[in-house]
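hey so i finaly got around to running the thing on Zinc transport system substrate-binding protein from Blastococcus haudaquaticus. pasting the sequence first so u can double check i didnt mess up the copy paste, my clipboard has been acting weird all day
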Amino acid sequence: MSRSRAAVAGLLLAAVAGCGGTASDGDERLEVLVSSYPLQYVVEEVGGAQVTVANLTPPGGDTHGLEPAPRDVAALGEADLVVHLSGGMQPAVDQALAQERPDHLVDAASVADRGADPHFWLDPLRLAALGEQVADELAEVDPEHAADYAARGERLTRSLQELDREYADTLAPCRGATLVAAHEAFGYLTERYGLRQVGVAGLDPHVEPPPSRLRDAAEAVQETGARTIFFEAAAGSSVAEVLAADLGLATDVLHPIERVTADETYPELMAANLTALRRGLTCG
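ok and heres what it spat out for the 3d tokens, dont ask me to read them lol
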């Protein structure tokens, strides 16, 4: 086994061990590397038993701050398929891919168009579009199982379309409502379902907002009748709680589905988000 191929195997073994599974000799599944959890979810759903997926970002890890180790960089060039979102969410991975270009790469930037905001997966229809691209690329790598990838891709699309309908129906009375978020990560979601996002801390949840930003958020609350400030549990609630206390508002958790633990899943987190939105938005 070459050193680079061993790097891929090492990452995959670590990923499997982290999930409580085992790997066996002679495994002919495709080796797929991804750089964040939403991409992992898509590949696992579409690839099924024909793929083994390793995520460069460990469960609960900081997606933005990921710094690939040398073996990770080598593994990117040797994987059967890499699925990544370019454009600045993970600049170190962008640089690594420039050094070690894989033969097969799906860049999720093709379904994302909001510039600095990477959270396209909060729009289920955009995630479905990525699933179709992954199915096509897996079929290119592994034509023998093309029909399987196509069928699973279609199944994923149907489930995400159903999720979209559930969101649209549930949030229909809330169209035009203001979503006040401590972390401005919900642009795709608010655009899809006719909401308005006001971010207290901008895109980076770790940057302390300046007083002017707090004043703008307070004015938006007063003008729109918003009653809840949503915060990301992984980033903490201090800013949201201070502003909520000043304005007499409630706080609630809204998950950007970015820092995800090993026992959390995309469908479960999206369902929890919808419940929080219906509970916390000011709807007609």
